[in-house]
């Protein structure tokens, strides 16, 4: 199941099944270069899932280094 159209990132190192497998991705650069093309990749890390390891770790304590990855606001 994909939450939020795939923008609810749980793992930045995984490939969604709909796009293939990691083995497919591993072959991609060589196959593209054989055709004389270049590969441009984009990584957007300004949002993650609440299930992502960074977020889970950030909630462990107020002085956790991952806590600075997120903006925390007291809503009370």
Automatic annotation (TrEMBL):
Q: Which domain of life is it from?
A: Bacteria
Q: Which InterPro entries match?
A: GH, GH13_cat_dom, O16G_dom_2
Per the UniProt record, one Pfam family is Alpha-amylase
Q: What are the entry keywords?
A: Hydrolase
Q: Name one GO molecular function term.
A: alpha-amylase activity
Q: Which residues cross the membrane?
A: none
Domain named Glycosyl hydrolase family 13 catalytic is located at 3-75
User: Would the keyword Membrane be found if you checked this record's keyword annotation?
Assistant: no
GO terms in the biological process aspect are: oligosaccharide catabolic process
Q: Return the protein name.
A: Glycosyl hydrolase family 13 catalytic domain-containing protein
């Amino acid at each position: 199941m994909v939450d939020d159209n795939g923008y609810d990132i749980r793992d930045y190192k995984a490939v969604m099944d709909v796009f293939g497998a990691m083995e497919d991705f591993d072959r991609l650069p060589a196959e593209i270069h054989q055709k004389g093309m270049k590969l441009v990749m984009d990584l957007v890390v300004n949002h993650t899932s609440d299930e992502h390891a960074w977020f889970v770790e950030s909630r462990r304590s107020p002085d956790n280094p991952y806590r600075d990855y997120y903006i925390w606001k007291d809503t009370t």
